[in-house]
Amino acid sequence: MEINLNKGLFFALSACLAVTFFTRNTFRNVDDIAPELLKDPVQVETEYPEGIVFSRDGYEYSLTPLYDYEISGLIVGKMDYRVFSIDKYDSVFPGDLCIIWGPNVASRVYRDRAVKFSQDCRWCWVQWYGNVGFSMRELSNNHLLINNKYLESKFNRLLRGDQVKIKGKLVSVVAEVPGKPQSRITWHSSTNREDTGGGACEVIYVEDIQVLRKANALSGFLFQVSLIGLGLWFLVNIIRFFKSL
Question: What is the pTM for the complete model shown?
Answer without folding.
Answer: 0.84
